[in-house]
Amino acid sequence: MKRFPIICLLLLWTFGLSAQTQQTISTAPARETTDEYKPKRHTVSGYVRNNTGELLINATVFDLTTKQGTTTNEYGFFALTLPDGFHRLRISYLGYEEHVEHFDLQADRRLNVSLSEMPSLSTVVVTGDLNSPMLNTQTGKRSLSQKDIRGEFALLSSPDVVKSLQRISGVAEGTELVSGLYVHGGNNDENLFLLDGTPLYQINHTMGLFSAFNVDMVKNVDFYKSGFPARYGGRLSSVIDVRTNDGDMQKHHGSYRIGLLDGSIHFEGPIIKGRTSYNIGLRRSWLDLFTTPIFAIINRSNHEDKFSLGYHFYDLNAKLTHIVNSRSRLSLSLYQGHDALKSKDEYNQTYGNGNYGSNDLTRNDFHWGNLNAALNWSYLMAPQLQANFTAVFTKNSTHYNTLYESNDRSERRNDFTRTEHGYRSAIYDAGYRMAFDYRPTPGHHIRFGNDYTWHLFKPQTYANTSQYGANEKRDTARLAGSNRHIAHEISLYAEDEMVLSQRWTLNAGANIGLFHIGSRLFCNVDPRAAVKYQLSEKVSLKGSFTTMSQFVHKISNSYIDLPTDYWVPTTANLRPMRSLQWAIGAYIMPDKHWLFSVEGYYKQSAHLLQYANWMGIEPPAERWQDMVMDGRGRFYGMELDARYHAARLELSAAYTLSWNKRKFDHYYPGWFNDKFDNRHKLNLNLHYRLSKGTFAYAAWTYHSGNRATTPTQYAPLPDFGNGSEQGYIYERPNNIVLPAYHRLDLGVNIHHKTKHGHERIWNWSVYNAYCHLNTLWIDMKYDEQRGYVRAKAKGYIPIIPSFSYTIKF
């Protein structure tokens, strides 16, 4: 409780700075005033949309008269307070024709702007983009629009949000083909994924081959790897804020896509033209449609041993948006993702004219998925103040059941055994979000709010074994374990982005997190600060300091995102995970085509969790607290980025030099390298427009090999009275570096307009074009003749071609 006076002083300092500072985007001075005449100030506020009514996030609103500007928030809202008089307001967004509004400002003015999409973008100019790394305040921020994601390489012909983020500097992908995200050394569970404001706990399908985000529905992605604003909290390493499209307010249209392993349909349009819209997207895999008939044909010719396997996943996104009036807006966003895996193995053997024999049956049934819902009300309380109230609900569940039956029939006896094992895990979240966006002057952008979440954690396991003889039950054994935790999480935040002078900009704030479980209350205060110095029109310097807290943990014993992993809360015996991160950077734009940046970071984490003495794939539901150990992390590195934009060509390069170290005293007395401590990482990307409707892209990825733990000796073990035995001796964890990873991906998109005005898109892509078999695991054997342990790298993922066909109508 001693922290609260410090909190009050911090908030007073944040809001007590002068509200008279003026935001200056360029070095040109603002219009001078005298003591005899001080012009009145009025606010221009409103929303920026495209010509279908879709709100645009991070659009630039710039006053050409006073050289002041701002950007739209995640709800497309902007507010700019200007002196009275004539003004020229330029509204721009990448890929859209800019709009210039002329007006005489004599009172507060409401301005809703609609931008038209450019049919073809001749030149990409980033100088006017206030969300550019050159001009925004945060370090480590990257924003991706739907066009950016669709322009990335499409694995198996399906563009992917997470795999697009894996190409950013400072991010490691982990295991090949898996949608892992290891940001600045953090684990996969240290990333906060938000879908329209609701947390998403399971982000993968097919063990990570596909992510849970349907690109047809995604409007914008804001990704933070450092310099986290105070409005975000709950994870240590990164924030991925995903916003979906509202739907076309003017006309109905949609698309169909058929890919190698999945397909999708998408429809959107008005329910009440100009007022109410719908947006629905469905994606489904059809691997089961191929495997079911294939196994049926195989089993027809095999009378003794029959096997079947079926797997599918689907994503369903739906959104309704209603404009109540010019100040009020309602939206309901729903998401359901589901995976199902079923297998059946049946063995039948008969003899004695079919009267005797044995029958064995093994059946597995696996289901897992998410259900998310968000009801949002956006209300313009005043020209300078927008409020957003959101009710949220999240469910993440896993259900696994396996059945084994054995029947042995002979002349003397008839034995039957039935064993059933099951696993259930679920987490339920319900709560609200209150967010306020206040812009008193162009030099102040204040955000404050409150979040509340009610958590229910329910991991359960059970097992039944029954034995029968001569049709009578002989014995039954049942084992069951369960755990149930109810927790309450509250966060309060306030942040202010302030223009201190023509060159200095500061974003300062704090996030206060409260977590109550049982009789224990945790309170963490996380201050945040980011500062930018505009050295010149072509050079900016930045620095940031952030602390983060995490109250939930993912229990896992593998590096693949398995549905058997489950989330657990901080308890009375565990401490919340904490992190502290410093970051600095320099950003250079020598002309309108090139942008260079260099960033460095240093991060420390405490109270990290790792399994201590359990080695199974399925975590235990009971006593899991006794099987984890508390540790620390230390991560630092440097990131270099370069981007080139021209009329037909776009190039980008991202290089990362990093160190990733951990320390668990119960496991190893000193610091050791993490499995994904990849010292060097390099991504090169090329996009080239071959013709009006033909686009080619290439991406080359390289990083130092992952690490693995191998024994260094095969020697006699200590004698405990049972005779001398020999075994492997391990020097330290992750003591070897696997071979370097590299691959080349190629692709081409061909767009064609039909005579009915529909657009057809053919996509051909090749994963791992030169078929380099990268290491997935290692095979270790002891060479008795030479007296050492031999390790051999194993890689199995070859070149993978794919194709998709899309029609938009």
UniProtKB/TrEMBL annotation:
This is TonB-dependent receptor plug domain-containing protein. GO terms for biological process: siderophore transmembrane transport. Keywords: Cell outer membrane, Membrane, Signal, Transmembrane, Transmembrane beta strand, Transport. PANTHER family: HEMOGLOBIN AND HEMOGLOBIN-HAPTOGLOBIN-BINDING PROTEIN 1-RELATED, TONB-DEPENDENT OUTER MEMBRANE RECEPTOR. It comes from the Bacteria. It comes from Segatella maculosa OT 289. One of its GO terms (molecular function) is siderophore uptake transmembrane transporter activity. Residues 159-235 form the TonB-dependent receptor plug domain. It is a multi-pass membrane protein. Residues 1-19 form the signal peptide. One of its GO terms (cellular component) is cell outer membrane. It is found in: Cell outer membrane.
